[in-house]
């Protein structure tokens, strides 16, 4: 199967980062809330089943991390997928908001 080219863009109106294909189709998204301290809480990540197993989710979360760096923002990772990604990528740990952890939520 051919490689899927994905660009990650902020859709501020819908409060989510989207994994966009070259034709503009949304292959996946990561939803967020912004709290009073301007921290981004990412609470849900979803990839269209047509693109499962093609690296779209990992590309999307890498794009989330790039977005946070560009915005000089911090993350509260409430989404399991994002927490799992961050656990495997030590270079993302500096993006954690004060008090946020990569532990499972209870």
UniProtKB/TrEMBL annotation:
What Pfam families does its record include? Acetyltransf_CG
- Domain of life from the UniProt record: Bacteria
* CDD domains reported in the protein's UniProt record: NAT_SF
Q: Where is the N-acetyltransferase domain?
A: 9-97
Q: Where are the transmembrane segments?
A: none
Please give the coiled-coil regions recorded for this protein.
none
Among PANTHER family, the record links this protein to: BSR4717 PROTEIN (PTHR31435:SF10), PROTEIN NATD1 (PTHR31435)
| UniProt name for this protein | N-acetyltransferase domain-containing protein
